[in-house]
Design goal:
The complex is a heterodimer of chains A (414) and B (292). Chain A is an alpha/beta fold and 414 residues long. Helices cover 40% and strands 19% of the residues of chain A. The longest helix of chain A has 28 residues, at 2-29. Chain A starts with a helix and ends in a 15-residue tail after the last helix. Chain B is mostly helical. In chain B, strand 1 and strand 2 (140-143) form a beta hairpin. Classes of the chains: A alpha/beta (414), B mainly alpha (292). Chain A binds chain B through residues 42-44, 46-50, 176, 202-205, 207-210, 212-214, 216-217, 230-231, 234-235, 238-239, 242-244, 261-262, 264-267, and chain B through 3, 5, 9, 12-13, 16, 20, 111-112, 115, 119-124, 126, 134, 136, 140-143, 145-146, 214-217, 219-221, 225-226, 229, 256-261, 264, 267-268.
Chain lengths: 414, 292
């Protein structure tokens, strides 16, 4: 035992000496870290994709394109917002450009098209796409997610609506696709576990020119929870107000439906809407103040979850590269480091990861208000250290089917 | 599975159906005339709608009166439409496949230009101040603005009908729709008619884009959401027929509203079912004429 300890000590000493002796040449020889971004700059999904690029570029500029002493090579690729494009561009980034880490892609179906590929090529990937199972039943050791699963924020909304707002009866409305199902399921589960009842679930198709036929069906409820994304929330909230529901039934929203970046497209119809999000431009951390100021200076916009998510992703890469030190940011070691890091000051508060690669962090409850002519989402409550499993037991959670249109079953539909 | 709806809901849906029908008529009247007269499947029509909407919100942003913004946008699009017809489409007369490729390509180009100029953020202007209120009926509120869309659509429908049915120009257009070759032989300058109709169609689509902006909003992808609606309306109503476009628009308006509410499981196909029926039973459309 003693001998063993001594050997280890000796080894450590030796390593220390050699590191000191070789210090000057290693710094010079340090290879740059290559970061590839998969984003969407053309087509209907471009709105979020452009914000993603703005977020990471803002971070890299702040760091003068140097992370933990290494220069950064940044390569941006436009997937066009479809799975085939995502696969092609991922291949280009990995096989031709030899990137160390990929940030993105934007949409869940793009992410699902490349998860096996990045695993086969041992390239870590930091995504904002929310598909639950990517960090749950089908967790991939090369994928981490610093934003949130679909339901991570919605669990919080279920809790807040039942306990603080004391709502008993809720209707949900969201697009008829996986992100919508997973969000509404998370809300329903926590809301009903705390005594509430979801009495109506409405699923308009992704492309719905006019939401009136759906809004007309919302009956006697205490609140409506909506999980729209992209430009749909703008249309939905206007129709909700136009049809006179705004004054009568409070509206709750997921993060994409009331993202800070969307506020400038919205008007009075958004005032009073309570939303949950993993990021709020209103949040007071040092890094967030810098980030918001830089985004307003460079792009003239209030940043939302997509750009903040990419800024945090950049911070995660920096922390992992720092942790690896001279080892170099390669494949498997980088992926492992990304799982182990924690970052104390990000625009969304302290960030760490569970063993499935999903973030454990703050979730904000916000109320939309008009301040000095501008709409802002003011934080009214912060839930800290929120896990993707909420307060449920991890094993039990994973033994259930993944959230869907039919799970958990809606028992109280009228 | 059918969802029961109350009479109050039905009333709201009915009024909304008529309003949506009005907007669809503005969009598809031009599409129908272009298809009927020029035999061009104008796949850039949805882009005219979207670009018109973007022009409109830009004018509105500069403080221009709502109706003036709609007219300015329509005028600008008439010019763009005229240029496209005169310098691009004219070279491809009678060649359907190149026309499809050209108009589709233009639609992609316009979509990317819009993304560059107006960013990916959705724009949603307020309705004109005099129409911001709601009418209350059956315990539900109904926005006045949508009723105004219907009013505007009716006025334009009547104006178009008078033009086509009562004027010399209309007679020439009808002759051109029925038999362009004979019309040419009779001394009608069909190529001038083509430019005129294309400008008119583009202007109407742009006008519809501005009218639709306060409730549909304007955003990337709007072009290819509206194009299929115009196609369905025209297939239902029959090409080249204003009456067909009118009836088709209101049919789709009702089908959309009541279908989405009562048969949510069929939300994706409900608009296409009648189209399939019409194609099988009456391929020329409800009011279309059989080609001679």
């Amino acid at each position: 035992m003693t001998t063993h300890r001594r050997t280890v000590l000796k080894g450590l000493l030796g390593a220390g000496v050699s590191a000191v002796a070789l210090k000057a040449p290693t710094v010079l020889a340090q290879t740059p870290v290559k970061i590839g971004l998969l984003t969407v700059k053309t087509g209907p999904l471009a709105q979020g994709g452009i914000q993603m690029e703005q977020g990471i570029v803002t971070f890299l500029k702040e760091k003068n394109y140097t992370l933990a002493g290494r220069k950064v090579d940044f390569i941006s690729a436009d997937t066009g917002g479809n799975p085939a494009g995502a696969k092609t561009k991922a291949q280009e980034l990995i096989e031709r450009d030899k990137v160390h880490v990929i940030l993105g892609p934007l949409a869940a179906f793009e992410l699902l098209a490349i998860t096996d590929y990045v695993r086969d090529h041992q390239t870590p990937l930091i995504s904002l796409a929310a598909a639950e199972d990517v960090t749950q039943r089908k967790a991939n050791p090369f994928v981490i997610r610093p934003s949130a699963t679909s339901a991570q924020c919605c669990h919080v909304m279920g809790d807040y609506a039942a306990k603080e707002l004391k709502y008993k009866r809720a209707a949900t409305i969201s697009e008829d696709f996986a992100f919508g199902y997973e969000q509404m399921a998370g809300f329903q589960r926590v809301f009903e576990d705390n005594g509430g009842r979801v009495v109506k679930k409405l699923w308009p198709p992704l492309v719905t020119p006019d939401y009136t036929p759906y809004i007309a069906q919302i009956g006697n409820v205490d609140c409506v929870f909506n999980g729209f994304a992209g430009s749909n929330p703008v249309k939905f909230m206007r129709a909700y107000a136009d049809l006179g529901l705004k004054g009568r039934i409070p509206l709750l929203a997921g993060w994409t439906a009331m993202d800070d970046a969307l506020l400038r497209s919205l008007g009075d119809e958004a005032v009073g809407v309570i939303s949950v999000a993993f990021y709020s431009a209103d949040y007071g951390s040092e890094s967030n103040k810098r980030f918001v100021a830089a985004m307003q200076k460079d792009y003239g916009v209030l940043p939302g979850g997509y750009s903040a998510g990419m800024y945090v992703a950049g911070q995660c890469v920096e922390a992992a590269v720092q942790k690896l030190g001279d080892a170099g940011p390669d494949g498997k070691t980088l992926a492992e480091a990304l799982h182990q890091i924690s970052v104390a000051d990000t625009p969304r508060g302290p960030v760490k990861f569970d063993k499935y690669g999903n973030v454990v962090g703050d979730v904000f409850v916000r109320r939309c208000e008009r301040k000095g002519g501008q709409l802002v989402n003011t934080v009214i409550k912060t839930y800290s250290n929120v896990s993707q499993f909420w307060t449920y037991d991890e094993k039990e959670f994973l033994a259930n089917p993944v959230y869907s249109r039919d799970y958990p079953p809606a028992k109280y539909i009228e | 599975m059918m969802v029961q709806i109350t009479s109050a809901q039905a009333a709201i849906l009915a009024v909304n159906s008529i309003a949506l029908g009005g907007l669809l008529f503005l969009l598809s009247a031009g599409f129908s005339l272009i298809f009927g007269l020029m035999r061009i499947p104008n796949l850039v029509h949805g882009s005219f709608f979207m670009l018109g909407g973007y022009f409109g919100v830009t004018f509105l942003d500069r403080g221009v009166n709502f109706w003036l913004a709609a007219l300015l946008s329509a005028a600008a699009m008439a010019v763009i439409g005229g240029l496209i017809e005169r310098f691009l489409l004219r070279r491809l007369e009678g060649q359907i496949l190149p026309q499809v490729l050209l108009t589709l390509g233009l639609a992609f180009i316009i979509a990317d230009i819009c993304l560059m100029v107006w960013t990916g953020d959705p724009w949603q202007p307020s309705p004109p101040p005099e129409l911001r209120g709601t009418a209350q009926a059956f315990g539900m509120f109904f926005p006045l603005y949508r009723l105004a869309i219907l009013g505007v659509a009716v006025v334009i429908a009547i104006a178009l009908w008078l033009m086509v049915d009562r004027t010399r120009l209309g007679a020439m257009i009808r002759a051109g729709v029925d038999d362009p070759v004979i019309a040419r032989v009779m001394g009608i300058k069909v190529s001038q008619l083509f430019t005129l109709i294309f400008c008119l169609g583009a202007a109407l689509a742009a006008f519809a884009g501005v009218m639709g902006a306060p409730y549909l909003s304007v955003y990337p992808g709007l072009d290819f959401e509206m194009l299929p609606l115009a196609l369905i309306v025209v297939i239902l109503g029959g090409t080249g027929s204003l009456l067909g476009a009118l009836v088709g628009s209101f049919l789709i308006g009702f089908l959309y509203n009541f279908g989405q509410a009562m048969f949510p499981d069929l939300a994706y196909v409900i608009l296409f079912l009648p189209m399939v029926l019409v194609l099988v039973l009456r391929p020329q459309g409800l009011f279309g004429r059989v080609e001679a």
